[in-house]
Design goal:
With 442 residues, this protein is mainly alpha-helical. The chain has one domain. Helix content is 65%, strand content 2%. It has a three-stranded antiparallel beta sheet with strand order 1-3-2, with no helix packed on it. β2 and β3 form a beta hairpin. α2 packs antiparallel against α20 and α5 packs antiparallel against α18.
């Protein structure tokens, strides 16, 4: 089956979409990081973000809506209805690249969670069909969906979510049959089965810590203005919200998979990698597997080294530092998702909405969108697209530096609050240079 129609739309579109000097962009981004750190060192001497006190209560009318039963039921029903609708296309639809399952799976679910979570908070938690099914089972059996048969082991933290995210990026970026219905159906079935078993065993704590998409959505939502303090809906600075990210084992692994896989997605389309794979006896499948793993492990190793190479207080252990600073990578991840997937999401996202009107590929127009056309406006404005991409990368890193600086002056001893950040600053500079290089080379 030909997959060209899908894959050609995938990714950042290549250097032809970036009519600006790569050297200038990389130099400017590096200068922005260094200047930001210098300004912070001079003007930001005390912590400014505290999850326990930051933010103001949301308007009473808004809190009343968001916390109402009908509001929660509405979004659970929407998520489950979409799940069933796409499930029909997956089970009974044609095994063609025009089947909307692929767009929903790779575009709406994976990329779409980012803007939705930035705007509205942890969206996947609200619409997750596996949470809905688990809730229904609990109601039928008379049990509490928040509690399972066992207590979720704290030492596992987010490690299962990191593995789940890796499984997703593997099928998207490495598996050679990623646009055939069989593998996608199997992947989703395995995901649903694992989530339902986990929910039955450990209750909703399993979804908070181990559901790859809930962890992903919730992490991104930390950069929204919506937060919770003692259960109350509050409006606060996104960086204050980010500071409230719970520190759990495996958090570095999650951000490393998210960041590393996005970098690999750019790299695998670069001329350097294509020439290497074509010139070696190593199969492209094995080479891509090794490269994806190397990117994810490399990001994790660089970040861990950047955070651990610092002086410590008496109450900290060096191995605790990576997870304590891992929240600072979230803005970087979001910046690269915007830079890498913006055009892809806008254009293929529209195409998916059109295809959803014909889930069985029989010419139907169930949603009334079948006659719509994709708007390629972004593709016709390459300079604007280039500027947005570079600004997204730079802004993500600057916000990451700010988040890391605030955490450093909160947990590091005074004599190491500035010098202790230098290795992490160097790691972020390396991420910036590498990311922009990949942005221009693919």
């Amino acid at each position: 089956m030909s997959t060209d129609g899908f894959n050609l739309a995938h990714g950042i579109g290549g250097a032809k979409d970036l009519p600006i000097s790569p050297e200038l962009a990389i130099a400017g981004a590096t200068a922005a990081l260094v200047i930001s750190f210098t300004v912070l060192a001079v003007a930001w001497r005390t912590p400014r973000y505290d999850a326990a006190t930051s933010g103001r209560p949301a308007p009473a009318w808004l809190t009343g809506i968001v916390d109402s039963t009908w509001w929660r039921v509405l979004w659970r029903a929407f998520g489950f209805a979409l799940f069933l609708y796409v499930g029909v296309a997956a089970i009974f639809g044609e095994d063609l690249v025009i089947n909307p399952v692929f767009g929903v799976f790779y575009v709406w679910w994976w990329v779409g969670l980012v803007p939705l979570s930035l705007l509205f908070g942890p969206v996947w938690k609200a619409i997750s069909p596996v949470r809905t099914i688990n809730l229904a089972f609990a109601k039928i059996s008379g049990s509490d969906p928040d509690t399972g048969l066992f207590t979720y082991p704290e030492r596992l933290g987010h490690w299962p979510a990191a593995l789940g995210l890796y499984a997703f990026v593997w099928i998207e970026l490495v598996y050679p049959y990623s646009t055939e219905l069989g593998p996608v159906r199997l992947w989703v079935a395995a995901y649903v089965a694992v989530m339902l078993v986990g929910g039955a065993l450990f209750g909703n704590a399993f979804y908070v810590r181990a559901d790859p998409f809930e962890v992903y959505s919730t992490l991104v939502s930390r950069l929204s203005v919506w937060g919770r303090r003692d259960g109350q809906l509050v409006v606060r600075s996104p960086l204050a919200n980010l500071d409230a990210t719970p520190v759990r084992p495996g958090l570095v692994a999650v951000v490393a998979v998210l960041f590393g896989s996005t970098g690999f997605d750019s790299f695998k389309d670069s001329a350097t990698w294509i020439k290497f794979v074509q010139g070696e006896d190593l199969s492209s499948y094995l080479a891509n597997n090794l490269a994806l793993l190397a990117f994810c492990l490399g990001v994790g190793a660089i970040f861990a080294a950047g955070t651990m190479l610092t002086g410590l207080g008496d109450d900290l252990r060096r191995r605790e530092l990576p997870n304590l600073f891992a929240h600072s990578v979230v803005p970087i991840v979001v910046g690269y998702v915007v830079a890498h997937y913006l055009r892809y999401f806008v254009e293929v996202g529209q195409l998916t909405l059109i295809q959803l009107s014909d889930p069985l590929s029989n010419g139907s127009n169930l949603l009334g969108t079948g006659n719509w056309e994709v708007n390629y406006w972004l593709g016709y404005h390459p300079t604007l697209l280039a500027n947005v991409k570079v600004l997204a990368v730079v802004a993500g890193h600057v916000l990451g530096v700010i988040a890391a600086h605030d955490r450093a002056i909160k947990i590091l001893p005074p004599r190491h609050q500035l010098t202790g950040q230098l290795p992490l600053l160097l790691a972020m500079v390396a991420f910036t240079v590498g990311g922009l290089y990949l942005l221009f080379s693919s």
